[in-house]
């Protein structure tokens, strides 16, 4: 029985898919916090190069992927799509469970799908140095690699709790030539103020974003790079869904349910948006589910309103589901899902009823991740294990109603640098917060 569905290098998509023009209602624009008027594209040029600002507001359904980017994508793309037959058996479910494996990339997650084009578009625009934030280090390491490949300097603000608890991704960033600061840091005025108030501040993604933005504004050769949330990041990730559509055709099945975990929303968007396009066109009415931590429940318990993307209020206002930009998420092991907001595009899709959202506690998540590792071999990143927890629920419902359901989920990264979190779970010390 065929369980693995592979495309060839020639099948790497040549265009990204942009959901923006296909939304039944237009996406509310980012607003200037002072005037409350839509932010003109020029206002974003201090942070991003013009070519990426154009992608952020792009009205076209398809955007060409440059040859230089496809050449680097070929290091790991097309990624495999597999049917998890042993996991199905362990769950005793009639459901067919497929997963797209983005952990096959050199950095171990989907994040390189956007770090590579972001570094490329900055390079051709003349940028010398990129500043960014990272939680557990998945994004920082992905940008470090991309900057190395295009000869850019990379300066990363890493949330302090992860800097201390997750040394291996920090080492990976150093190996790929980046400079890494624990955030809050003494590198920025904002960081120094926070440290003066609380020298033990553990940091958050919102704080690290504020530091990276301040760094960018104070260095004329520097641009800012964000690993999730923004429209152009979701756009770059659509290679995941575009490949998956072809691979599901090879498997001869159509997904009834599509599942991805949501931090800022980009891996979910990458898998889901090409399928949402088909849903809007009335081709297939599948259930599409974004999954988040119960400890940071942006989509399931947040409010849809304009809010800042960072703690220091230096970004434009974005219309999104948010827990409030001052929200300090508890230190759960899925560091990449500890963000107070959600991609405006994913938020809009939820508002329009094009998707659903679910939240799970981390003990349930690690139970699902461990069962997956024991049946399929791959140890999932704690972030990706959120998607697996939702798959387990779907598979249970299929068993109870004795219905064959075809489930497709995004295995956004491997957890080989998160083994201490698994150890905590296996030794019975993991608590829900
Ligand atoms: C493996 C993995 N999956 C998911 C995420 C969440 O980010 P996003 O929602 O942008 O995909 C992260 C973030 O660091 C991650 O490392």
Tell me what the structure shows.
By secondary structure, this protein is α/β, with parallel strands linked by helices. Helix content is 40%, strand content 17%. The strands form four sheets. Strands 1-4-5-15-10-11-14 form a seven-stranded mixed sheet, with helices on both faces. Strand 12 and strand 13 form a beta hairpin. Helix 11 (239-251) crosses helix 12 (266-280) and helix 15 (362-376) packs across helix 16 (382-401). It is globular and about 60 Å long. The relative contact order is 0.15. The model has no long low-confidence stretch (mean pLDDT 97). Bound molecules: pyridoxal-5'-phosphate. Pyridoxal-5'-phosphate binds at residues 109, 135-136, 138-139, 228, 261-268, 336-337, 381, 383-384, 412-413.
Rg to the nearest angstrom?
A: 20 Å
Ligand inventory: pyridoxal-5'-phosphate
For the largest sheet, list the strands in their spatial order.
1-4-5-15-10-11-14
Distance between the termini: 42 Å
Quick check: average pLDDT? 97
Ranges with pLDDT <50 over ≥5 residues? none
How many distinct beta strands? 15
Shape: globular
TL;DR?
This protein is α/β, with parallel strands linked by helices and 433 residues long.
How does the SSE layout of this entry go?
Blueprint: E1 4-5, E2 15-17, H1 50-56, E3 62-64, H2 67-73, E4 81-83, H3 85-91, E5 96-101, H4 112-124, E6 129-134, H5 138-150, E7 153-159, H6 160-165, H7 167-175, E8 179-183, H8 189-197, H9 205-218, E9 222-224, H10 231-237, H11 239-251, E10 257-261, H12 266-280, E11 287-293, H13 298-301, E12 303-308, E13 317-322, H14 344-351, E14 356-360, H15 362-376, H16 382-401, E15 406-411, H17 419-426
Parallel strand pairs: 5-15, 6-7, 6-9, 7-8, 10-11, 10-15, 11-14
Antiparallel strand pairs: 1-4, 2-3, 4-5, 12-13
Helix pairs in contact: 1-10, 2-4, 3-15, 4-5, 5-7, 10-12, 11-12, 15-16
